[in-house]
Amino acid sequence: MKAMYKNLFVFLGILSLFTSCRQEIPTVSLGLSDVYYLPRMKAYRFTPGFTGETYRWSLILPDGRDSLLSEEHYYTFVQKDEGTYNLRFEIIDKETPYIHNFTVNVVHELVEYSRYISRVLEYKPAPGQFINEIPEYVEGDTEESIRIKVEQSISGRANKLVSLGGYGGYVTFGFDHTVINVPNERDFIIFGNAFYSLVDVGKKGGSCEPGIVMVAFDKNQNGKPDESEWFELAGSEYYKPETKKNYEITYYRPDPNKTPEPDETGNITDSTYIKWTDNYNATGYISKVIFHKQDYYPKWLSADKLTFKGTCLKKNAEEVSGAGKYWVQYAYDWGYVDNHPNDSISLINFDIDWAVDNSGKKVYLPGVDFIKVYTGLNQTCGWLGETSTEIIRAEDLHIKKNK
């Protein structure tokens, strides 16, 4: 009998708790702690264990007001500055609403962050006259060993040039922290090897081989861009009608037994060296020039064709001599890699707030963990060969330089 009464009291207690949950919003842990200590510029993903109809993550301002952060189930927190941040998580649900208030103390990192690239995640160049040269291919190299060579070339202050080849060829890299999106400030800078040889009124040209920048935030915080959504940083040419969106090109491995077709100048040793086709029903070739005699197709890749997709910029080159001797590649205004000389600091840095989605709509990112640069032009300039973006290093503008 006592056992029966005991069970009855337990049941009534549970029923009373359930009823009170439906009448008012309790404060519960939801699998979240009350206090967190996190280093600055390091993202942390909060993963509540409960689910509901809708969600709300808010920052509690000093005056008590809420500032909405997110309405997703999960929230990834990252801050540039040290300090105390009071947050609130709410499950908005008719049956089981919940609230959890908690504090995040952002502290200085134990090991100082580097201003420079710390890792290269992927290197996949398109065919080009510098491929297999910078970095140098050695018999037996694999995608991984080439990736390591690229990482050694552009990480830290190494400043060794890496070529991305023709249109679409790319490199993906990251830092040892999240690059924070600071309002009204440029966030990172990327150096190439562009230079001016002709400066006219309103026009600057020379060797300007623009590369397009893509960025992604590591929402699941696994250190890989596997589930991250990529966004283009919309430069000066993005919204112009001559810029091709959703462009796609395929390159084909050249037949080693093919008979070369040189031009009459002798500067091009094979004008039909590597064939390409695109989704605009166009066909063309990357020529082989006399100055670079090695294979132009990446020798460490086994695929006999390579396909790249993205935005394709209007051709920027002009032959100004009338005799095929003097090519000028004009710089675009802003927003591209290897587009202006490295001393044009304001023209080679980037703002995360330029990010747009596939439809061209602006998006907000709290920071970025992955940066991809790809050659943005499908263009051949006679004896100069294909237009190919080069990169030597990148820096987070929010990390001070070490003396």
Provide keyphrases for this structure.
single chain; 403 residues; mainly beta; six-stranded antiparallel beta sheet; five-stranded mixed beta sheet; 2 helices; 28 strands; 8% helix; elongated
Helix/strand layout:
Elements: H1 2-23, E1 35-39, E2 44-46, E3 54-60, E4 66-70, E5 75-77, E6 83-92, E7 98-107, E8 119-124, H2 143-154, E9 162-163, E10 170-174, E11 179-180, E12 188-191, E13 195-200, E14 203-207, E15 211-216, E16 231-233, E17 244-252, E18 268-278, E19 283-289, E20 305-312, E21 317-319, E22 327-330, E23 349-350, E24 355-356, E25 367-368, E26 370-375, E27 390-391, E28 393-396
Parallel strand pairs: 1-7
Antiparallel strand pairs: 2-5, 3-4, 3-6, 6-7, 8-10, 9-27, 10-26, 11-25, 12-23, 12-28, 13-14, 14-22, 15-16, 15-26, 16-24, 17-18, 17-20, 18-19, 21-22
Structural class: mainly beta
Oligomer: single chain
- Within the largest sheet, what's the order of strands? 8-10-26-15-16-24
Portion of residues in helices? under 10%
Number of helices: 2
